[in-house]
Design a protein that fits this description.
Layout lengths: L2 E4 L4 H9 L4 E5 L3 E2 L4 E4 L13 E3 L3 E6 L4 E6 L2 E5 L2 E6 L12 E11 L3 E9 L1 H6 L14 E4 L5
Antiparallel strand pairs: 1-4, 1-12, 2-6, 3-4, 5-8, 6-7, 8-9, 9-10, 10-11, 11-12
């Protein structure tokens, strides 16, 4: 079944980048930049009504750039990996061209609603590695924007 992850990442950060004279937020590889969120296409097959699997993969990437090139943050090949309390969001290492570098754990995700075609987060907490991506402008444990997984259901 097709679907997507809907995640603005951090709205205040996106606004900050977009307000820069040279600030750019761009998407590639199937991601869609919408007015208030970013959609990352689902790569892992999900079945409506079933629990979320131990790993969920999403296509697409988003890059935040500005400050004459001194700011460059890439979120690519997002994965949700099951943990004891929810899922850990990881991204492909930005300097890994062949996938040989370890993935970066960005945030811990706790779910508050799991429905047959929709899952919404209760909290998305920044990890210490995620804080480093933002040059420690946000501390470990800072809340990122809520995310949801939406499955596309064909109408009869």
């Amino acid at each position: 079944m097709t679907g997507h992850l809907s995640w603005p990442i951090k709205t205040s950060f996106r606004r900050y980048v977009e307000a820069m004279p040279d600030g750019v937020v761009s998407v590639d590889s199937g991601a869609r930049l919408l007015a208030t969120t970013i959609h990352f296409p689902l790569e892992t097959p999900l079945t409506p009504g079933e629990p979320l699997p131990s790993e969920i993969r999403f296509a697409g990437d988003v890059q935040f750039e500005g400050h004459g090139g001194r700011l460059a943050i890439l979120f690519s090949e997002l994965r949700l990996e099951r943990t004891a309390g929810g899922h850990r969001l990881t991204i492909d290492h930005p300097w890994s061209v062949d996938g040989s570098l370890p993935r970066i754990p960005v945030a811990e995700v706790r779910w508050n609603r799991l429905a047959s075609t929709h899952a919404s987060s209760e909290s998305v907490s920044l990890s210490s590695e995620g804080a480093s991506l933002f040059n420690n402008a946000y501390e470990r444990g800072s809340q990122l924007d809520q995310m949801s997984i939406e499955l596309d259901v064909a109408s009869p």
